[in-house]
Design goal:
Blueprint (H helix, E strand, L loop, with lengths): L2 H20 L7 H17 L23 E3 L10 E2 L2 H7 L8 E7 L2 E8 L2 E7 L5 E3 L2 H4 L15 E8 L2 H4 L9 H9 L4 H5 L4 E7 L7 H11 L6 E3 L6 H14 L4 E8 L2 H6 L10 E5 L4 E13 L4 E13 L2 E7 L3 H7 L9 E7 L3 E8 L23 E6 L2 E6 L5 H12 L11 H9 L16 H4 L7 H16 L3 H7 L7 H11 L2 H9 L12 H9 L3 H9 L18 E4 L10 H10 L3 E3 L8 E3 L8 H8 L4 E2 L1 H8 L1
Parallel strand pairs: 2-11, 19-20, 19-21, 21-22
Antiparallel strand pairs: 1-6, 3-9, 3-10, 4-5, 4-7, 7-8, 10-11, 12-13, 12-15, 13-14, 13-18, 15-16, 17-18
Length: 650
């Protein structure tokens, strides 16, 4: 047997045994497993070129299954929650106890999941399903980073919680999936655990089902010591100030990275809660308060089709202006053809009544459509058969499981303008002065016909300085900015600037870190490198990178000096420390992004949520009642002001 064959044999055996062990059916003794493992480790040390990505020495084994099996929940069933939208009903519900005996936690908008541990090891994970029967998702639970695979407890332990995708992790997928909940629900049901791992899901524990404690609070604290990420929870404030309490909670949600759609109130006394009984639908120990977004009704005037940098035409509803949560709103994106059809299966018409909310109190979103009584062809709003910008025929395409309208004209002015704006913008090369309005004029004057023309604009200086709205100072400033990027371009910025589908600045930086130089990256594309082997890169991203047209990029690489990626860490002041940043900055750092860079360059890490692993929370308002402050105080995490951080780590 050759060395390669022996390594393949050992990897396959160990992965098979590991999966059986994790599912509670060990096939071999620990000693036999260890013997195989250390033999594999030595062979890989001697032959690093033969190391497989699925080797147990490299990563946790990811299972692939053929279907999700149904599983019956152990007692008690996974019941739902009784719900209300009136906070006074909450206090009436718990009128038999004092405020300090009611625990309030955030209601997470994800997929409920139950974990079972036997002899300290995770043996099963299951979705809620109908409450009695769910689906076995154990293979995917093993690849969710924050689910403990082993806990310090030998007795049977059952934990209920929520599978979620944080808002920051959802951003790269927000044009494909409607919301984080749908994304999490679909991702956790994937048959290939390796694909699920790339979705960066999280598990947030909110109940120890068979706890030994009689205090709900104590049971959550215990879960935290086991290594679980626990749902943020609080003691309820004064009943007489219920509206003030809800306003505080709503404001806190805006700062959270969790998808949250309400609050859950629970008796802290577990036995008292059990004594309240239950219905088929829900237990009577808890009550959910739903955050209902403020909504307004308006009249639909038109649907415009906005061109993106990839040629996708995004439908945008135009309606009679309304006042919504303090601002005037007259437009809302409809995202894609699927969402248009879901909202209004019978087609869209002028004069329809549309209900608008601000999703997360920020983004206008249409949630309901009522068609006018009389429908005729004059008021029908059909997707355009010709591109509204260039007149080229449009086509409906299935992109990442979503139907989109697209202009496939490679010379479409709208597509080119948006690509050019992205290339020169903050998430691209960041060439100061080249705004979209300026670029539009440069295109109209025929000075820019492709990306390489940007670096020849100095040829038009004498004519440019005479143009209305420009002058010697402004033109020279733009030309100097272009020259600066031409001579000194960051690799991550260059990759991001190319408008590769699904590859924004974050993933461009990961590619730069991995390949170091443009030639290395481009050669990896030519040689069909498997980008799914990189952490966080899924099949869609892999296809997007490999199928992208790099012809212009190659021309640009001959003009621009693209620097080799260099790790910018210059010290280790924050080495190994985990920080969370919240609130406004400005004393020493312009914003959170600047402070984040300072911490990361000093060897630290910045996360979005406070946990028992957090070393410091940075917040200038250390007395605020924000979720992060309250959680930090509960977990004894030190809270530093910006000034204190600067003095401590400068």
């Amino acid at each position: 047997m050759s060395t390669r064959e022996r390594i393949d044999y050992l990897v396959n055996k160990l992965n098979k045994w590991t999966l059986s062990y994790d599912l509670g059916n060990p096939e071999v003794s620990d000693k036999e497993w260890d013997n195989f493992y250390f033999e594999l480790l030595e062979l890989e040390r001697q032959n690093p070129e033969l190391i497989r990505s699925d080797s147990p020495t490299q990563s946790i084994y990811s299972a692939k299954i053929t279907k999700l099996n149904k599983v019956t929940h152990c007692e008690p069933p996974m019941r739902s929650l009784a719900k209300t939208k009136d906070i006074r009903e909450v206090y009436d519900y718990f009128s038999d106890v004092a405020e300090e005996d009611i625990i309030c936690s955030y209601k997470l908008d994800g997929l409920s999941c139950r974990l079972t541990y036997d002899k300290g090891r995770l043996v099963r994970a299951e979705t809620r399903g109908n409450g009695e029967v769910g689906e076995d998702i154990t293979h995917n639970a093993f690849v969710i980073d924050n689910i403990p695979k082993q806990i310090n407890r030998t007795q049977l332990t059952i934990i209920d919680g929520e599978i979620i995708c944080t808002l920051s992790n959802f951003k790269p997928f927000s044009q494909i999936y409607k919301n984080p909940r749908n994304f999490a629900a679909g991702s956790i049901r994937l048959l290939d655990a390796a694909e699920c791992k790339k979705r960066n899901l999280s598990f947030i524990a909110w109940k120890w089902v068979n706890t030994d404690y009689n205090s709900f609070t104590a049971s959550l604290i215990a879960l935290d010591t086991f290594g679980f990420t626990v749902v943020p929870y609080f003691t309820v404030y004064n009943r007489d100030k219920s509206d003030e309490f809800i306003n505080i909670m709503r404001n806190n949600v805006k700062q959270s990275d969790y998808p949250i759609d309400g609050l859950v109130f629970t008796y802290d006394d577990i036995e008292l809660g059990k004594s309240k009984g239950f219905t088929v639908h829900h237990a009577n120990d808890s009550l959910a308060f739903k955050f209902y977004d403020e909504s307004e009704i308006s009249t639909l005037l038109n649907i415009e089709w906005s061109m993106g940098k990839t040629g996708v035409l995004t439908p945008v509803a135009i309606f009679v202006p309304i006042e919504l949560e303090g601002t005037e709103v007259s437009r809302a994106s409809l995202h894609n053809l699927n969402i248009m059809s879901d909202l209004c299966p019978n087609g869209w018409y002028k004069g329809a009544k549309v209900e608008i909310i601000k999703a997360n109190q920020i983004i206008p979103q249409i949630v309901n459509v009522e068609l006018p009584n009389i429908i005729d062809s004059d008021i029908a709003l059909e997707p355009p058969v010709l591109c509204p910008i260039c007149g080229y025929p449009t086509a409906i395409e299935n992109t990442n499981n979503s139907l989109v309208l697209k202009c496939n004209n490679p010379k479409c002015e709208g597509k080119f303008l948006n690509q050019l704006n992205h290339f020169c913008g903050k998430k691209g090369l960041d060439i100061k002065g080249l705004s979209i309005a300026t670029l539009e004029k440069l295109i109209d004057w025929k000075w820019i016909n492709d990306f390489t023309d940007i670096f020849n604009l100095s040829n038009y200086r004498s004519e440019w300085v005479k143009k209305s709205g420009f002058g010697v100072a402004s033109v020279d400033k733009i030309l100097a900015a272009i020259e600066e990027k031409k001579n000194n371009c960051n690799l991550a910025s260059f990759i991001s600037a190319l408008s590769i589908s699904l590859i924004g600045s974050t993933y461009a930086k990961k590619l730069a870190e991995e390949f170091k130089t443009w030639n290395n990256f481009y050669n990896s594309v030519i040689n069909k490198f498997d980008f799914t082997s990189l952490d966080g890169f899924g099949e869609e991203m892999n296809n997007a990178i490999l199928n992208f047209d790099y012809s212009i990029a190659e021309k640009l690489s001959q003009i621009i000096n693209i620097n080799e990626y260099v790790d910018k860490k210059k010290d280790n002041r924050c080495d190994g420390l985990i920080f969370v940043i919240t609130g406004k900055l400005g004393h020493h750092y312009k914003n959170r992004d600047e402070l984040k860079k300072v911490i990361e360059n000093a060897g630290g890490k910045v996360t979005s949520a406070v946990s028992s692993k957090t070393d410091y929370l940075i917040n200038n308002d250390i007395k605020s009642n924000s979720e992060k402050n309250v959680t930090a105080q509960r977990l004894n995490v030190p809270i530093l002001t910006e000034e204190e951080f600067f003095n401590l780590f400068n």
